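ok trying this again, last paste got cut off
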Amino acid sequence: MSEPSSEQQKPIVLLGKRQGYIISFEIAPNRLECWCTYTPSGMGGSPMSETDLQGFLRQYKILEGLQEDSMHRLLHAAATGMAATNLLLAQGSPMLPGKNGYINLAVKEANDEPAPDGNGKDDVVDFRRVQVFLNVEPDDLIGTIIPPEPGTPGMTIHGDILPAQAGAPLTVKLGQNVRMGDDEVSLFATATGRIFCKDADISVEELYTISGDVDFKVGNILFKGFVEIKGDVLDGFSVQANKGVKIQGNVGTSTIKSDGNISICGMSGQGKGQIICGGNLAANFLYDTTVECDGDVNVEVEIRNCTINCLGAIRVAKGGLAGGDSVALGGIQTAVLGTVTSLKTRVIAGAHYRDLAEITQLFNDLKKLIEEFNSAPASMKNPMDFSVKKLAITKQIQEIRSRVYDQCNPKLNVRKHLFEGVTIVLGSLSEQVKEERDGPLSIIENTIEGGFRYLGMTGLEFKASDIEKSFVLQAQRENAA
């Protein structure tokens, strides 16, 4: 199609002159609007009538989109000898181009809670919720290619049809971890991750990298993949990633959660920060933090005033473990245990922390059952029912205590120094350290004489049960002799 000439780009002005008035019609270059101006001549003659107006409209082929209100105003001005300026007398309908083809995403935003809708009086805006995370699993439908729309034809004020212009089809560029369905319009994920979609480009990213800090510019992170943060995680923000988290900086009073491994420089949780790790946790230091870890907890420098529940082993390489409660099914090893100030420290090795929680709840239930039975009136007491319920709780406790785990290792290793005041729990035995000891040493339960055995240190790969078994066999040989 040729470009419109300069003449075609100018409005058309048509004049109608009579003895009693002058009327002008200005038609827009696109022939979609007509503006009218009426001026009485003041030199006699008759004002414009409706018949005159209709004649002008036919003469200038102004046929479509006539504006009744403007025509009434124009005729009223003429009848009263008044002027009328810039009245929109006719308006055509523009051609509406069709919408281009696009990708309609089939995945909703991943957030723990819905965003405020603005209708509730108690809505609270979370300024830490900045980004939209469209998380997917393999074979999830992530989007559909929508074809272009045909568009809507228009019409000029002269009655000429303006042909519709169809939208442009979308040529999709499939990125990593995306496949096209057999219908050639459906798009599916081939890996777990986050959808990236911009115009015709679509992919599923398994790695999400933050070049700086997690702050109000980045917001909370909820990502089905691996997250790497090259800065710090500021107070109050959360990072959740299915496949793992690596933080090169420090973490404040935040929540870090992953089904995979977590690696951080350090965390000062101030009693509010928490780490939930489905793999192994590595850190330089942990202060005032709650940790729940399905694998090992490996700390380079120090653990202080933390609550750690671990299904692997807890290891502190250079410094010490002091304050708080530490439970590790696979044993505990540290350079220093406790402090010179006798900071309350308790370590439990060889126990499953979820079992401990169950047992604690059952003992609470048992205590409540006994209290309710003792305080009930004699007429309301049912000794048989009480005995049945008490026996059921006791059996549950026994069942939990009889559970066996391959990774169980009730063993404590201290490489440099053990301070007094530390409470040590190994198996069913609990003792508070009465005097300081220098390492390296290993502590296991003495099943023959009771109490603990303080031995030369061996690695946690040598289980306490195997070591104690050798002492039992030696005692049996000596008794036999």
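PB: full thing came through this time. Residues 353-375 form the longest helix (23 residues).
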